[in-house]
Design a protein that fits this description.
By secondary structure, the chain is of the alpha/beta class. It is built from 18 helices and 25 strands.
């Protein structure tokens, strides 16, 4: 196992292999087998309509793999990948798998304050970016900052005009040794509850199961046309079941540059999309505008909604508004996935967040003392299983808190489990805001706020919001008499490289923060100030 990664205990690893959860295959088999079985069929469709057959995509990945080797990248090298939903993302992903180079998958919205720490933690030796985000943001400027700040990043490769950097590497295909299926293949990012980024190592075998089993429970087949509406680097859109799940069944993947109704509806009609996945705010938006748009969504069979809790009222409107079935998905990049089943009752589909994917998933619902709660009672969800990590990368101190002694991951999610096995998510114990599926670590944003010259103290909390689930409110205590405005604070945070989705939606100035009996800031009391609740 790669140094810094926590392996599964030997007995469990043997069990997962013996019971068929872990295959002796690597992730690149999804493309290789697809090219063998469906060579001339369409595998991938770009937003502009450019189509790639399975054979073309397979050959492209081979050229990139050879180019990576020619560029001096070696097996188990870590590289930071930050690409939007473009064909280069898919070809590069499989090229990296074949060259045994390990991608750290960052989201397009990440900026300096996320990318620099990720490069430092992973020891990234290269950075892959797009020319821009299509809306004026130039990733090459970010790359210039990163290379100055992180000496280990020796190379930058650009999809598009590389400027002073290098284009995506390609070379004549070469024979390459096969990777170990039980070694890490890639790193996903944790939503996190602190300012320190955490990397989630996913092995070929566990992530292959993740994609294949998710595709099976979602009814994917070779007729599936899957629209990647969310960022492809996100676990939901990548392998839950996502584009990898669609590829595992020989389906077709369509890439959307953004999840807006204008963009998504046009692609659904143009490419006869059958399934897509979104977060609740996007689902709400689509349902609100569909009657005002001239779009043929008749091919859409299934809308998957996850990333944050989808409340029963809007969930019950999906079929009438969009003419398709609903599947709720609740999970985490760390592993555990829950799906409502296609044959579940409407009540289960609209009121629960699904049941565990795998028969070997082990779940505990515990109280604050770590003791199991009674049937149907609320508690924190703990889990372990064949596709749930045993520890974050190079994070021994955090792992001691995030995992029990016997390997259960403390999710921080407060849930109730029904007799059917389905979960109802009731909230979070961890100190983070879930803003429409985007996880915002409160401590990280507080640290940035404390750097403002006028801020004495800062506390960040989530505000309940019907559309986003939560929005972000920053409470501050100022040093002098003049408090900064929200506009001034957001401008300051942008200058520090904070991603746009992490910027506070609201700013409140207090003379002092309410405290708990042990002298800590009472965030419960701060939320009550916002909601007008007493007690």
């Amino acid at each position: 196992m790669l140094d810094g990664c926590v392996p599964w205990p030997g007995a469990l690893a043997e069990r997962y292999r013996a019971e068929g959860y872990w295959a002796e295959q690597t992730l690149d088999v999804l493309l290789r087998e697809g090219a063998e079985q469906h060579a001339d069929r369409t595998a991938l469709v770009a937003a502009d309509g450019t189509r790639f057959t399975w054979a073309e995509l397979d050959a492209w990945a081979d050229r990139i793999a050879a180019g990576l080797v020619a560029a001096g990248l070696a097996p188990q090298d870590r590289v930071l990948v930050q690409l939007p939903n473009v064909p280069e993302f898919v070809a590069l992903f499989f090229g990296l798998m074949r060259a045994q180079v390990l991608p750290v998958l960052a989201l397009p919205a990440h900026r300096e304050s996320e990318i620099v720490p990720l490069c430092e933690l992973s020891g990234a030796v290269a950075y892959f970016v797009a020319e821009d985000d299509g809306a004026g943001y130039d990733y090459r400027d970010l790359a210039r900052t990163v290379t100055k700040a992180v000496p280990s990043v020796r190379q930058v490769f650009v999809a598009g005009d590389p400027a002073e950097f290098a284009p995506l590497p390609e070379a004549d295909p070469i024979d390459l040794p096969a990777a170990d299926p039980f070694e890490p293949a890639l790193f996903l990012l944790s939503g996190g509850t602190t300012g320190t980024p955490k990397l989630i190592p996913r092995t070929h075998s566990d992530y292959l199961y993740n994609a294949r089993a998710s595709a099976e429970v979602s009814g994917f087949s070779s007729d599936t046309v899957y629209l990647v509406a969310l960022p492809a680097a996100h676990n939901f859109a990548l392998a839950s079941p996502g584009l990898l799940g669609a590829m595992s069944t020989g389906g077709t993947v369509v890439l959307a540059p953004d999840p807006s109704a204008d963009t998504a509806f046009e692609l659904i009609e143009r490419d006869r999309v059958t399934v897509t996945a979104v977060v609740p705010p996007i689902a709400l938006l689509w349902m609100d505008v569909v009657d005002f748009m001239d779009a043929d969504l008749s091919t859409l069979e299934l809308l998957q909604v996850g990333g944050a809790k989808f409340n029963p009222e809007p969930a019950s409107r999906v079929r009438e508004a969009l003419g398709c079935d609903l599947q709720q998905v609740f999970g985490m990049a760390e592993g555990l996935l829950n799906f409502t089943r296609l044959d579940d009752t409407d009540e289960l589909k609209t009121t629960t967040q699904g049941a565990p994917l795998c028969p070997a998933d082990e779940l505990l619902v515990v109280d604050e003392e770590g003791e199991p709660v009674g049937p149907g009672e609320s508690g924190e969800l703990l889990t372990r299983g064949p596709y749930t990590l045993r520890g974050y990368y190079r994070a021994a101190e955090h792992n001691a808190r995030a995992f029990t002694a016997d390997g259960y991951y403390r999710s921080g999610d407060v849930v109730r489990q029904l007799p059917s096995g389905h979960l109802i998510v009731e909230g979070r114990r961890k100190d983070q805001i879930n803003r429409g599926g985007e996880k915002i670590p409160a401590e990280e944003l507080e640290n940035h706020l404390l750097a403002h010259p006028a801020v004495h103290d800062a506390a960040v909390v989530g505000m309940p919001d019907e559309v986003m689930g939560e929005r972000t409110c920053a409470f501050i205590v100022v040093k002098g008499e003049k408090a900064p405005t929200l506009r001034e604070v957001t401008a300051f945070l942008r200058e520090r490289g904070v991603a746009a989705y992490k910027l506070p939606d609201r700013l409140e100035v207090l003379e002092e923060f309410p405290q708990t009996k042990v002298g800590k800031v009472s965030k419960v009391a701060l939320v009550r100030l916002l909601t007008g609740e007493n007690g």
